Amino acid sequence: MNRLSPDGGGDDGNDGSESLASPLLLPQRSLINSTSQVALVGANVCPIESLDYEIAENDVFKQDWRSRGKKQMFQYLFMKWSLCFLVGLIVSLIGFFNNLAVENIAGLKFVVTSNMMLAGRFKMAFFVFSASNLVLTLFATLITAFIAPAAAGSGIPEVVGSISAVSASLVVGKAGPMVHTGACVASLLGQGGSKKYGLTWKWLRFFKNDRDRRDLVTCGSAAGIAAAFRAPVGGVLFALEEMASWWRSALLWRSFFATAVVAIVLRALIDVCLSGKCGLFGKGGLIMFDVYSASITYHLTDVPSVLLLGVMGGILGSFYNFLLEKVLRMYNYINEKGTVYKILLACLISIFTSCLLFGVPWLGSCQPCPPDALEACPTIGRSGNYKKFQCSSGHYNDLASLIFNTNDDAIRNLFSRNTDSEFHASSVLVFFLICCVLSILSYGIVAPVGLFVPVIVTGASYGRFVGMLFGGRPHSSLNHGLYAVLGAASFLGGSMRMTVSLCVILLELTNNLLLLPLIMLVLLISKTVADAFNGNIYDLIMKAKGLPYLVAHTEPYMRQLTVADVLSGPLWTFHGVEKVGTIVHVLRITKHNGFPVVDECSQDDSRVLYGLILRAHLVELLKRKDGFMSTSAESRGGGVEFSAADFAKRGSGTRDTIDDLEISAEEMEMYVDLHPFTNASPYTVVETMSLAKALVLFRQLGLRHLLVIPKITNRSPVVGILTRHDFMPEHVLGLHPLLFRSRWKRLRLQVPRTFSIF
């Protein structure tokens, strides 16, 4: 083994830092600058690393594929499609029962509260409303804090917590938790269950690499969006545009198949509910599907108001992201103090929300019921456009119809057509402000919550307000409900910065293809305007959490650097035939997940790079002990006792680490041949390659390790290893602080030029 430095890096043996590079390439002063620069940027990069998406093409893997016949290949393909079907089926059932539970729990709460208000028991109605919201919020917080603190696991805590949080009248959505739940279901199926919870199935443990499991998780996330919004095509595009950083045609087919299963199952289940067999869940279905299927016409004179919606959506969306980022940073400081503070914060937000939702409608005025109303007026119960609240018979409170309601019903009311005279502009404006404040404050609590629905309801309220100001012109059929749809699209584009997937999701929600040109226009404009101010909300949240997410584009300063400029030490290498004690020593003092294997040529004493071996494979070798040899001169062949299944990851849970192994002193003096287990064809780049070019290669191929080899041949055969942490701006700008100052100077100069196109 060649050890260039006694220093080590990383944290845990599963997903630790993997930056292995020679300390000769970087002075210690730069390492100190890196730490201070991270603090300056405001995000500490967490130790999460990518999985081993690259197939380790070692001798064991090659033998496994050579031994497979037509039957095994058919089984492999059959299991891929079967698991996609199971993912779609399970996620659709979860999505249906999620909505079923929310509609019935929240509906029962509003029915009981409304009955008390009809009887004049207003104080008791407020107590029941706020107490039920507090209990539901507390339940969701306790589940998240104690059962799934990192929002990871089987997906069950996320489902239950999401039901409780949404039913508690918090301005949160269930789309985000459904995406994560779909990913959890797919992950459990792909790896054969969970070893942590004692749920493993050998007949499902067929996929032996992270690439197949990642594809299945992508299908699960697409199915989650499809189940949340009943938008199968939008789910596929959402996974393509926002979730997956690596895509191929085969994955497109399987994700589309999974979302198609979701759409069919949901359609069948909702047909049952339409017959009145699902309690309070039935009329609305999922979200606001089919609420705007009327034919519409628009003219050139309508374009200026649509352009205004797009510009306003971009400005408001970027400002919304700015405020949300500040609130999340403040919540992080509070949550770091302990679980008690997390619970208290959630309870305070719940009480504040209940006070606003119950108190603000008293400021609204009572309006007489329209004689041509398409539904009962006033509404007695949980949903409808005409909430009675405190009004007398034959009158309704338009502000209560928006605020004292579920988020889904509020969106339906805003999107509804032929209701231009049912809501006052002041009521819609107040509702917009309340949605902005409550959605920002509610998102950071410790509970499974999403942003998609809050952004939709906030955008719909401001869109309807704009429609009240500029709508109603002659020769225009852009009514207030249509303005609400376009406002939701512009606010989504300004906050989330997605275009294609959002466009299709909104079209599937509203069931009106005639809206396509207008939605496309407002999405493009709002995204362009918002990009001039800050990043999309998901990138800002991931940056605040320190997640090492690689964006699709490269920063301009990366073209000024080579890969050698960002390498940091130390570099640890193994010989092809290595001593057991040496391997154990290195695994114990380092947390790296990949190690170059170097062979020495007996002719000229030069060294050549043989390949790359993973920590998990080394631990398995040491655990099995079948490949131990008494001397280093024994012939190769240590791989004959192993199969690819031995190195396949079991169910999720705690993996074996080097500290779990018991190796005697005699075994420490033995040797093991690493050649059969080493990936002999790892991806490599020359040290003079630009960092921008290396980033494109790293991201497009879905790599975890990228070996850096020297430009000249009379040096070590490998000079370092690149991982995703080496491409992060915090790391690069920490090593080169002058680029950090020039970057911000360039950004200040670019903002006016970017915005001047409007």
UniProtKB/TrEMBL annotation:
Subcellular location: Membrane
Keywords from the named record: CBS domain, Chloride, Chloride channel, Ion channel, Ion transport, Membrane, Repeat, Transmembrane, Transmembrane helix, Transport, Voltage-gated channel
SUPFAM superfamilies linked to this entry: CBS-domain pair (SSF54631), Clc chloride channel (SSF81340)
Domain CBS: 677-738
Entry membrane topology: Multi-pass membrane protein
Pfam family of the protein (one): Voltage_CLC
Entry-linked SMART domains: CBS (SM00116)
Classification via InterPro entries: CBS_dom, CBS_dom_sf, Cl-channel/antiporter, Cl-channel_core, Cl_channel_pln, ClC
Main subcellular location: membrane
Record's GO cellular component terms: chloride channel complex; plant-type vacuole membrane
Segments crossing the lipid bilayer: 76-97, 124-148, 216-239, 251-269, 306-323, 343-364, 429-462, 482-507, 513-533
Keyword Ion transport: yes
GO molecular function: voltage-gated chloride channel activity
Family the UniProt entry places it in: Belongs to the chloride channel (TC 2.A.49) family.
Matches recorded under PANTHER family: CHLORIDE CHANNEL PROTEIN CLC FAMILY MEMBER, CHLORIDE CHANNEL-LIKE PROTEIN CLC-G-RELATED
Name of the protein this chain belongs to: Chloride channel protein
Organism: Linum tenue
